[in-house]
Amino acid sequence: MNRKLLVTSCMALCGFIGIFTISLVTAAPLRGEGMPSDSYNINEKLNIEKRNLEKLRTQLQILETQKNEEKQVQKIEPQNAEQENSKQLNKAPIVINPNENIVLTKETGEYGVSVYSIDATQVKITDILQALSASFGKSIIVDEDVDSAYLSSYVNISIQKSPLQDILEVVLGIRGLEFIQNEDSIYVIALSKLNEDTAFEYYRDKGVRLYQKAQLKYPNDHRVAKAYLELGNYYYDLGFNFLALQEYKIILEKYKEHQLTNEALFKTGRCYDRLKDFENARRAYFQFMYSYPKDPLVDDALLSIGDSLVEQGLYHKAIDIYERVIREYPNEDTACRAQFNMAKAYVTMGNYRGALQSFLQAREKYDSGQMRFEIEYQIGNCLFLLNEYQDAGSVLVNLLVIEPGGEGELMENASFLLGDCFYKQNNYLAAFQIFRRAIDTYSKSNKVPYGIYFMGKSLSAMNMPDSAIQTFRDGMQAYPDHGYARKMALDIGNCYFDRGDYNLAYHAFSNFVKQYPNSELVVEGMIGMANALFHGKKYDEAINRYHELLKANDEEKIRRYAFKRIGDCYKSMGKLEQALKAYLMGLDKDEVTPKSLLHTDSSLDETTSNTQPL
Question: What tens digit of pLDDT does each residue of 530-560 get?
């Protein structure tokens, strides 16, 4: 009675809303599957209705079988979990007969995974897909570019106890078709529709699924270690280092004697490196070296150990490792890399002479390419840091004009550093031209504000204050939030001061102090305001400004400088007694008035206003 009621209910539902009708959805209808039109004859209409009935019968058969299963499950009162699992594994398979030529069986295989068997004789691929769609509970969508004739042909298929995806691959592979599945549907596509990028992604993901399937189906087979390794490499290439690490660890724990263990162990170190876990990275590399001393990747592992030590600031230990790589593997590429990385470690340590020597040795091992370009740049940088500006400039000019292979950030750095070399040699015209060319060439570079600032400084040094002021203002307008904008604002005041326009200088310094009250240069701005008043012979106002400076900053050298200036103000006013008191308060027998506190009284000490070399 219940069974008849179920069938009647399902037929009623299908008749009104078609919710249980499973169809093969296509952008262009398959041959023989289109909607009837006025041109169809009565036989064609009957055939369509017959096929729809077959689809409905297939779905109803599945529903009836599932209903029977539910009834059986409700009657089961398992005594323990083991008995229940045993009964589940031994339950009767589901048999589906959409027509007399197709038999589709669904049963539970090992590990509770559903497997299917299909026997079809002289049946259209379309009909097979409809049966699979009903069993799998997903719509099968065929791309509009797939020729409908491919799916209307008749085939013979016999596949036993396989996952449904495997059956789909066989059925569609007969006609050179592929499929991509998501949660709700399976999308059938012609292989020619996949471009190079999507084809690579498609086959890579397909390979991953096969490896995952192998792990589930053959967990105790030693050959499955390959699946874990390839899955690890897949995650590693995508940057999912933690997931990759888990796959490699399974190989190391379960397949210790496998031939792939060495690669898994090395890649474990690589994953830890990327995860910034340098202690575990070095532990993995050392274990790899001791376990496989003749492996061709031992030198790479040793080099990586040195790099991890540098990351942790253990430079002396890292240099010992680099020297070992150079000594034990002199003919390998890793020796060149070790020489280069050791030189960079010396730069970080401030040992520029040692770095220069190492870079020169690395130069001998690289004939061309991007690495050779970077070495030449680093040689020029070391010479600059050693204050050998002329030699540094020569290296950089040769690099930019002659040396091939330079590109990107290195070329930018070399261009701006060359401008620094000329500026340090007081060749301000050449410096201005180099910085301007660098800015024009790399207009999107984050070094542009730096270049604009030193263009203005070069113009100021060439006694062209008006041009310098305009350059600074242009730079501030273009980069108002950049750190060099405040330097430009301060130097506008210096330019007015150099020009002898102390009133404008005072207002420029005052604007700077108001606009950047938290700047590290605010003391220089306050000194500039006071000095502009002093040189403008506004001594009373200047004295007040120097007293404000004393309140704002209690450094000893600032205190001595401010009291000396206060004394100068009183002396200029003819108040010698007050001048003497001020001088005595600022007097220090061990040190005279601090030099170069501000550009307004003497040349600016470039070692404090200039930034570190690029």
Answer: 999 999 999 999 999 999 999 988 888 899 9
